[in-house]
Amino acid sequence: MLLEQVTLRNFRNIRECSLSLPPGLSVFWGENGQGKTNFLESIYFLSYGRPLRGESLSRLIRWESSSLSASTRVRKGEVSLPLTITMKKGEKPEIRHGERRVNSLREHIGTLVSVAFQGEDGKLLFGPPPGRRKLLDQTCYLLKPSYGEELLDFLRALRQRNGLLKLVRDGEAGTGVLSSFDQVFLERAERVSRVRREVFGKLRRAFEEVMEEVGGGVRATLKEKFGFSPESFRGALDEDIRTGTTTVGPHRDDFSVFYGERDGRHYASTGQKRVLIIAFRLAQALLVEEEKKENPILLLDDLTSEVDASGRERVLEFVCRRGNQALVTTTDRKLIPERAVTGGVFQVCGGQIL
Questions:
Q1: What's the half-sphere exposure (Cβ side, CA atoms, 13 Å) at 320?
Q2: Are residues 42 and 128 in the same domain?
Q3: N or C terminus of the chain with fewer C-beta within 10 Å?
Q4: What b/e string do you get for 269-278 counting C-beta neighbours within 10 Å, with b at 16 or more?
Q5: CA end-to-end span of the chain, whole Å?
Q6: Into how many domains does the chain fold?
Q7: Could you tell me the CA-to-CA distances from 270 to 223, 266, 274, 335 in Å, in that order?
Q8: Which domain holds residue 333?
Q9: What is the pTM of this model?
Q10: pLDDT band per the 50, 70, 90 thresholds, residue 57
């Protein structure tokens, strides 16, 4: 998979941009706040129709403007597909593959596959459990786009069940309302749990494989904390009624990142944590290559920050060896060795890419 051309209009602070992208690893450098991350986000937006940083869609539109446009050409083998997303303030994005309008985001997912690393990812991997569930769910979604709907179905069932539990706890309904609904909840929970467990096993193997090459001789792994089963769910009914909330289910899943023999959340240094989250993202990309037979575009934002020279070199060597098209941002051009730059070098200043 290769991006050949990217054209932007009124995307974040980028008024207008038309850029030919070579294969290999390209570097985008410049001071903070100039638009490096915004350019990477435009690729993510073209991939998934949503912002990279979890903000509202309207924030993507340049502040003086009422609409945006982002387009690219995606080459897969001998086929080159034009892809365009336009959006007006207050409206949903409109996606086109060539001249054909795409009716749903689900239909679009997979046309352009990218995996993004950003500094804030560390808060997900080493913060509270919801962040790690989000990372795992992202991986499931990359490998199985229909998982998104399965997860939404489960979360809807969870909200409904919690509402029923509160009614029973407060004496406004009998336990019969739960017995009729719990089978629905279980079916949806088991679907989510099944996909997560399958993907987690593959992700752990890929993560260990990446860390063997970028970890500097320190072994690392992922350890699951999945406590859901139909039996444990049924056994928690009294506690669920007492608390008015569902205490057992995939919404309580978690995992740990072990660095050496210890939990990296507590014992890894800042630089080591940075390498671990980069390895996690590279493991996602590796799985996409294996499962989908596609080389995803790598979007590596501020890759050089908080990683020592040897760590940077190992990561860059791994990326170059895999052969993915990779877009790397940095504030210091000198931190990316010339031998690692197999694509182009672009300076970003005031929303312009030079």
A1: 17
A2: no
A3: C
A4: eeebbbbbbb
A5: 24
A6: 2
A7: 20, 10, 6, 18
A8: 1-113+294-354
A9: 0.95
A10: very high
